[in-house]
Write a structure and sequence with these properties.
Helices cover 48% and strands 9% of the residues. By secondary structure, the protein is of the alpha/beta class. The protein has a five-stranded mixed β-sheet with strand order 1-2-3-4-5, sandwiched between helices. It is globular and about 50 Å long. The two termini are 23 Å apart.
Length: 328
């Protein structure tokens, strides 16, 4: 598979709407969802709803179903509660981390090295660490950015490095609960055998995800230009063709993550009850409440979760995180 053919993912056309049409669609989604909107102000901000609309090809029904699924998932998975100590063993090998630099568009960069030694053999822990990194990346996005870059090094990769089942789980989390958060994924120097793996994985990857994939190779002139256009090579790691020989420093990274954990804890302790407070990096006004208010809040959350479960039964079989069975 040559670079030119691989780059063809980007030729897919994307439906666009005027700002007025987008706003009308956003209003429709909020109307479909109903009073729950007020319970989760950050998840239901206009920017967040718009991301779900884009993922659902501007179908208001699909966007609403995706949002309801995400609320239910966040109630059960509790991504905002994951802390460094929960996933530090998985993080220790440096196979996934947030880079200490941005790309030239100001986007957060997540570095992945799937060919390296895995911290655990537990898929659930690996998913938890991925979610932790996604939440952390969103927490650190600047106010004018809502997407991130995935920079994936295939050094040492083989078909035993990651299973199709796990790849499917990653796709379901990213596409179902973090739609339009991926701006670009650079697959750096994948081996020839990866072509077969990708063909098997494509059925559960959305076209909107595939079109964001770019392949790059160290000895390819177009790839070198791409890397130079996107990154400061003085900061970029050497395994991506950069000049930074330091690479991943676990101790420094652990300290940075614990500091971010404290930021997250401070925000949660401020009294905001939404399970998705860092979508859009919006800092909503927090309201302190007394013990009785907290009890009422918990009861309200349980009621919302119950309503979502009832709604989930109604829509069961129609849609699962916007993925049709043929795309799983």
């Amino acid at each position: 598979m040559d670079l030119k053919r691989k780059m063809s993912f980007k030729k897919l056309k994307e439906k666009t709407l005027s700002p007025e049409q987008q706003q009308a669609k956003i209003g429709e989604v909020k109307k479909i969802i109903g009073p729950i909107v007020d319970k989760f102000p950050s998840l239901y901000s206009d920017a967040s709803v718009l991301r779900y609309l884009k993922a659902g090809k501007y179908s208001t029904k699909k966007a609403a179903k995706m949002l309801k699924r995400t609320i239910k998932w966040r109630f059960e998975f509790k991504p905002e509660k994951i802390r460094w100590d929960d996933i530090s063993q998985e993080a220790a090998t440096g196979t996934l981390y947030r880079a200490d630099y941005l790309d030239k568009q100001g986007r957060i960069v997540l570095v992945m090295r799937p060919g390296g030694i895995q911290g655990t053999n537990s898929a659930s822990v690996q998913i938890k660490y991925l979610v932790y990194c996604l939440e952390n990346a969103i927490l650190n996005l600047s106010s004018n950015q809502e997407q991130m870059v995935w920079l994936i090094d295939f050094e040492g990769w083989s078909t035993s490095s990651i299973s199709l089942k796990f790849t499917k789980e990653i796709a379901q989390v990213l596409q179902g609960h973090y739609p339009e958060r991926l701006g670009l994924a650079i697959f750096y120097n994948p081996p020839k055998i990866f072509e077969s793996f990708l063909k098997m994985a494509k059925p559960f990857l959305e076209p909107s995800t595939l079109k964001k994939v770019t392949f790059a190779y160290p000895n390819n002139s177009r790839s070198c230009i791409l890397i130079e256009e996107l990154f400061d090579k003085d900061k970029l790691e050497t395994y991506f063709g950069g000049k930074n020989t330091a690479g991943f420093n676990y101790e420094a990274y652990a300290q940075k993550m614990r500091e971010d954990d404290q930021k997250m804890s401070n925000f949660i302790d401020s009294g905001c009850s939404s399970p998705s407070n860092y979508f859009n990096n919006d800092v909503n006004e927090s309201q302190h409440s007394d013990d009785n208010d907290s009890e009422d809040e918990i009861s309200g959350d349980e009621a919302v979760c119950s309503n979502l479960k009832e709604d989930d039964e109604i829509i069961q079989g129609e849609m699962t995180c916007s993925h049709h069975d043929s795309k799983k």
